[in-house]
């Protein structure tokens, strides 16, 4: 048998990377926008000292990676360093927002946090441009930055929209709020997260739903409100009562899909069988999407299984699929759901004792009946 010699095909280098100590040094000295710098683990002492000299005083994101990673990215002598340069020039959001207001422009700003996939970032930017967004705000770390792939996914939108990168995401949001941009929050967790970073939402839903938030939204006043455009980032499967209500009371509403619900792969056969045969005592659904997706990939839970739902919309989705909702707490929080589920379990236990039954857990009762 003749062993085939592998062919080394030339690599097509990405347009947003530069490599080699001299090239990266020139980019730093020219103050080019650099998203990230990769340095080889175990680089020579001389090479490291030279790199450290020109990086000192610059707050770049630096990662140390194996030499194999750098070899995959380049076709030449990288000398232990690769830099991802930004294809755009980042702007300052505070400066832009104040300029827009001075010019009489009602700024439409999209703040994105923890969107880590560059293609998703590009797709969101493409939609944002269609919706008339003036600027996009992103954190310097922990989120996707503007790369060649992101620009491609945005169909060039990232070249036409002002993209602002900030080291202090919280402070920038607070500044925007201070100059007249209102922040609304749905959900206890969202409210607590905003407050934990020092931002108090202007509007909060009583029942943690979009509809509840809409009930508290004021009618647009052209003399009091400095701007009337409202951005609603939403899931692709979310309902639309908030947008419809705001439109009806004079606000100009733009909706964009901030994330998509992707159905997971089906669970192992043993788990699917347990779900459909009553092998679990209870199922807790946190959203309408979890109800639909679980039923889609694994089938309906057995009628003996206790169904607990967080929120009326979740319960409504469960009922539409023929499920009986046993537990629906008044407060749409996880702690309230756990408490309600515990009380329901205690009720089942007491009912079993009253009827002289020893076994009360739904899954065990189901199993004992099958054996008899």
Tell me what the structure shows.
This protein has 372 residues and is of the alpha/beta class. The chain has 3 domains: 17-85, Ribosomal protein L30/S12 (60s Ribosomal Protein L30, Chain: A, 2-Layer Sandwich); 93-259, Alpha/beta knot (3-Layer(aba) Sandwich), CATH 3.40.1280; 269-371, Rossmann fold. Helix content is 40%, strand content 16%. The chain has helices spanning 21-29, 45-55, 67-73, 93-102, 118-130, 148-153, 169-178, 188-196, 210-216, 241-248, 269-277, 288-298, 312-320, 334-354, 362-371; strands at residues 17-19, 34-40, 62-65, 81-85, 109-111, 135-139, 162-166, 184-185, 203-204, 229-235, 252-259, 282-285, 306-309. Helix 1 (21-29) runs parallel beside helix 2, helix 9 (210-216) runs parallel beside helix 10 and helix 12 packs parallel to helix 13. The longest helix is centred in the C-terminal third of the chain and has 21 residues, at 334-354. The radius of gyration is 27 Å and the shape is globular. The chain starts with 16 loop residues before the first strand and ends with a helix. Mean pLDDT is 80; it is low at 1-12 and 367-372.
Architecture blueprint of SSEs:
Elements: E1 17-19, H1 21-29, E2 34-40, H2 45-55, E3 62-65, H3 67-73, E4 81-85, H4 93-102, E5 109-111, H5 118-130, E6 135-139, H6 148-153, E7 162-166, H7 169-178, E8 184-185, H8 188-196, E9 203-204, H9 210-216, E10 229-235, H10 241-248, E11 252-259, H11 269-277, E12 282-285, H12 288-298, E13 306-309, H13 312-320, H14 334-354, H15 362-371
Parallel strand pairs: 2-3, 5-6, 6-7, 8-9, 10-11, 12-13
Antiparallel strand pairs: 1-4, 2-4
